[in-house]
């Protein structure tokens, strides 16, 4: 999931993302945000891994899979603030 501001999209060679993994960890409330099968066009339930924040080269961004619901995006933002101590 892309988590950086749109302001950097045209001028920066990399993008900040939180990877999405199908290895669901039900007990992780802060380090992961759960996405149900079907959300954002996912073919199985997945977790957004908040603690795996990384920058990837824009060349690796091939296609957009989907858009997560606003409620889940809010959880990602809140959890990033906690993990990054902001």
What features would you highlight for this structure?
5 strands, globular, SH3 type barrels, alpha+beta, 16% helix, three-stranded antiparallel β-sheet, 86 residues
Structure characterization notes:
With 86 residues, the protein is an alpha+beta fold. It has one domain (6-83): Roll (SH3 type barrels), CATH 2.30.30.110. 16% of the residues lie in helices and 21% in strands. The chain contains one helix and five strands; from the N terminus they run βββββα. A three-stranded antiparallel sheet has the order 2-4-3, with helices on one face. The chain has a two-stranded antiparallel ribbon with strand order 1-5. The longest helix is centred in the C-terminal third of the chain and has 14 residues, at 70-83. The chain is globular.
Count of discrete structural domains? 1
CATH topology: SH3 type barrels
Give me the number of helical elements. 1
Rg, rounded, reads: 13 Å
* H/E element order: EEEEEH
User: What is the class in the CATH system?
Assistant: Mainly Beta
Largest sheet: 3 strands, antiparallel
Compute the average pLDDT.
92
> Considering DSSP H and I runs of 4 or more, what fraction of the residues is helical?
10-25%
Q: Point out poorly predicted stretches.
A: none
CATH second-level architecture: Roll
Please, what is the oligomeric state?
A: single chain
Shape: globular
Number of strand segments: 5
Q: Write out the strand line-up for the largest beta sheet, numbering strands in chain order.
A: 2-4-3
Q: Per DSSP, what share of the residues sits in E-state strands of 2 or more residues? A: 15-25%
């Amino acid at each position: 999931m892309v988590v950086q501001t749109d302001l950097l999209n045209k001028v920066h060679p990399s993008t900040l993302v939180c990877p999405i993994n199908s290895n669901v960890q039900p007990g992780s409330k802060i380090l992961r945000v759960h996405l149900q099968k079907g959300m954002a066009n996912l073919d199985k339930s997945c977790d957004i891994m908040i603690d795996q924040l990384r920058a990837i080269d824009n060349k690796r961004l091939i296609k957009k899979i989907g858009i997560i619901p606003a409620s889940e995006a809010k959880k990602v933002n809140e959890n990033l603030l906690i993990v990054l101590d902001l």
